[in-house]
């Protein structure tokens, strides 16, 4: 916590609340400062402008997924199991969020789409985790693949339907369940598992 | 052409124009009848209500893809080649449409999303074509797969990023190009090609 008593979490909570209340176009730094009961200047000492604050809000939101994914990475499990659990955890995390608070989920989906650079960095971190699992699998002989990074990009794209917010409306359907399994079978074999 | 001189194409053209001009919420049957210079009653003889007319407009729009896809199906080519060409043709068709008239593309994307049943039937037709290519490949030994329908569903979902309108904004990026190839490599191997 900074000298002025403003923690990062409290600022981001206030910003999230203001965005939810007023929408992206109408929320400004004054709304956030007011919600915190501090001056403009105090808020600006933490975030130099609205864009910086917005990016921090979006990054915290997106970063939430690294908790369940980190837990999967820390498990002792064969690479195929680990990959399946990682993909399922990514899907389940997003699905739970969309279920629990559809409005907030939709707000963040729009915010992410409008915040330059936010998604790219996030997707890169996810692709690196995926590549790590695939590399370990290739090293142990569980997978047979020449280029773990390309394979990771392929797997990440192939599961778009189950982790990209644009498809949230269909995540609770039986078709989505069957589709996930179908893409998983294709992926498992595509990585040379069992070959 | 019907007795009243109204062809299906002219009605759908008029409806598309009206939708474009007024938007989905505000377009009604009178706007379409007016654009055609005919009475309400004349239009209702062809489409019993706005929902039926809208579905016909959407189905014509989506059905356009079956021309290039049909051409691929008619070619003499090995199954791997045919599958690659089919997936590329689907992608290229959508990408061209999004490029040529982004506004119309976005309008239709919204219309498809709001028209119950439109997408399901369309996706089923696409999945059947895919299953046909995969089945033929399994029969010739080019692919090794137990369940062509499940494999087709997997492939269709895996390429979501390259054919679903929600991702149109990124179709012209180098990442999308590389992503398509990465998913293709995963798919080709996932279908047991060359095994």
Automatic annotation (TrEMBL), chains A, B:
Asked if the keyword rRNA processing belongs to this entry, the reply reads: no
Q: Which residues form the HTH tetR-type domain?
A: 5-65
DNA-binding region boundaries: 28-47
Q: Which UniProt keywords apply?
A: DNA-binding, Transcription, Transcription regulation
Question: What InterPro entries does the record point to?
Answer: Homeodomain-like_sf (IPR009057), HTH-type_TetR-like_transc_reg (IPR050109), HTH_TetR (IPR001647), Tet_transcr_reg_TetR-rel_C_sf (IPR036271), TetR_C_27 (IPR041478)
In terms of SUPFAM superfamilies, this protein maps to: Homeodomain-like, Tetracyclin repressor-like, C-terminal domain
Q: Which Gene3D superfamilies match?
A: Tetracycline Repressor, domain 2
Q: Give the protein name, as stated in the record.
A: TetR family transcriptional regulator
Query: What is the scientific name of the source organism?
Result: Paenibacillus artemisiicola
């Amino acid at each position: 916590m900074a000298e002025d008593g403003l923690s990062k979490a409290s600022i981001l909570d206030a910003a999230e609340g203001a965005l939810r209340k007023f929408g992206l176009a109408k929320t400004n730094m004054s709304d956030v400062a007011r919600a915190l009961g501090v001056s403009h200047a105090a808020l600006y000492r933490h975030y130099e402008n609205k864009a910086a604050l917005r990016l921090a809000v979006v990054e915290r939101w997106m970063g939430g997924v690294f908790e369940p994914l980190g837990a999967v990475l820390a498990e002792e499990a064969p690479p195929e199991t680990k990959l399946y659990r990682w993909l399922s955890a990514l899907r389940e995390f997003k699905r739970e969020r969309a279920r629990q608070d559809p409005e907030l989920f939709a707000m963040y989906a729009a915010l992410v789409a409008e915040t330059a650079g936010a998604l790219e960095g996030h997707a890169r971190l996810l692709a690196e985790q995926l590549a790590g699992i695939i590399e370990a699998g290739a090293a142990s002989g569980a997978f047979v693949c020449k280029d773990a990074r390309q394979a990771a990009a392929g797997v990440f794209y192939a599961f778009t339907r189950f982790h990209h917010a644009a498809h949230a409306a269909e995540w609770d359907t039986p078709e989505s369940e069957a589709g996930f399994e179908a893409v998983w079978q294709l992926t498992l074999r595509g990585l040379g598992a069992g070959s």
